[in-house]
Amino acid sequence: MQKLTLTQPDDWHLHLRDGAAMRDVVRDSARQFARAIIMPNLRPPVTRVTEAAAYRQRILAALPEGSRFDPLMTLYLTDTTATDEVLRAAESPVVHGFKLYPAGATTHSEAGVSQLEPLYPLFATMERHDVPLLIHGEVTDSDIDIFDREQVFIDRHLAPLVNRFPALRVVLEHITTREGAHFVRDSRPGIGATITAHHLLYNRNALLAGGIRPHFYCLPVLKREPHRQALLAAAINGNPKFFLGTDSAPHPRQQKESPCGCAGCYTAHAALELYATAFESVNALDRLEAFASFHGADFYRLPRNTRQITLEKSSWQLPQQLTLGGDTLTPFLSGAPIEWRVSTP
Ligand code: DOR
Ligand code: ZN
C-alpha cells in the first residue's frame, strides 16, 4: 500500500507540559490529531476543574493560527481529592476523566495515590456520574521486579476494583504486557486500554542490548518480545477496547542522558507514522483507522472525527533534535529513516 487515507485520529494519552516547553511541542500533536487526552502531571499537578480549564486555555493560546486541535483535560487524583471535585468534573465540559498515578510510579507522580481502598467512595461517585478513571497500572513496591509491576498491579488492585465498581469506565493506560492486553480483552465492557507506538515497535532489547539507550526508557518499561507481540495482536484485531495513546512525554535531553535518566519517550513528532510502521509490520494497515480514529472516541462517548488525513509511503529522516523551552529535546528514533509520512495536515 502506497497511500492510506483515514478519518483524522485522536491521541488518548498525551503529555504537553506547560509554558515554553508546551509551546514547542503542542504543534506536533495538533498537526496530526484532532483531539488529545491531556495528562495532568504538571508540577504542581492539575487537581481541580478550574486549573484544568486554565491549562486548557494556555494550550489553545499556544496553537498555531487556524489549528482546530481540541485538548480534552484530566484531573490528577490525590489522597485528598474531594467528592465535590468529582461532581464538578462530571458537570464540566472540559474534563474527561481522573488520572490515577500510584505515588512514586513514574515522572511527576509524587503527589499520587498511596492506597486505593480509602478512595473507594470517590470511585463510587465517578461510577455514579460516569466519569472515566484512567490508571497508570504499576505497583511501586521495591520488592516487585520492575518488569512485573504491571501484572502485579492488575492482580492486586485492578481486578478487585473493576469488580467492585461494575459500571465504572476504566482505561488501563499504556499497557505493556500480554497480561495487560488479556485482562482488558477478557474484562467486562467499559474497560479499555491505550497502547503506545513505542511499545508496539520495540522490546526491552532496544533499551538494554549493546548499551543503555536512555531515549527508549519510559514507564511502564519496555518488556520482552512476546509481550510486544501480544500488544500488536490486541491493537490490530478490531477490538474496540484498544485505542491509540502515544504517551508522548518530552524531557530535556540532559535529563534523559544522565546517571539517573528520567522516563518518557517523545513520539509526537511522528506519532501516526510510527503507528503505521507497526501496523504495516504485520500487514494490518487496514486496521489502523479503527484503532486510531474510532475506538477511543466511542469509549469516551465523543463524536468520531469527520475530516480525513492521508499517509503516504515515502522515506524521510526523523529530526535529530528539537527544542523544548530553552533546552534540547531528542525525539524518539532521532535521525532515523521512516517510511511513512502524513501528507495532509
Ligand atoms: O515514561 C513515562 N513518562 N511514563 C509516565 O507514566 C509519565 C511520563 C512523563 O510524564 O514523562
Ligand atoms: Zn503518560
Give a structural overview:
With 345 residues, this protein is of the alpha/beta class. Helix content is 35%, strand content 18%. The model has no long low-confidence stretch (mean pLDDT 97). (4S)-2,6-dioxohexahydropyrimidine-4-carboxylic acid (DOR) binds next to loops.
Order of helices and strands: EEHEHEHEHEHEHEHHHEHHHEEEE
Number of strands: 13
Q: Major β-sheet, in short?
A: 8 strands, parallel
Query: What is the molecular shape?
Result: globular
Q: What separation lies between the terminal Cα atoms? A: 20 Å
Uncertain runs are none
Radius of gyration, whole Å: 19 Å
What distinguishing features does this structure have?
single chain, 345 residues, alpha/beta, 8-stranded parallel beta sheet, 12 helices, 13 strands, 35% helix, binds (4S)-2,6-dioxohexahydropyrimidine-4-carboxylic acid, binds zinc ion
Set out the fold topology:
Elements: E1 3-7, E2 11-14, H1 19-32, E3 35-38, H2 49-62, E4 70-76, H3 83-91, E5 95-100, H4 120-129, E6 133-135, H5 149-164, E7 170-172, H6 178-186, E8 191-195, H7 197-201, H8 205-208, H9 225-236, E9 242-244, H10 253-256, H11 271-281, H12 288-299, E10 308-317, E11 322-324, E12 327-329, E13 337-342
Helix pairs in contact: 3-4, 6-9
Bound molecules: (4S)-2,6-dioxohexahydropyrimidine-4-carboxylic acid (DOR) and zinc ion (ZN).
Zinc ion binds next to loops.
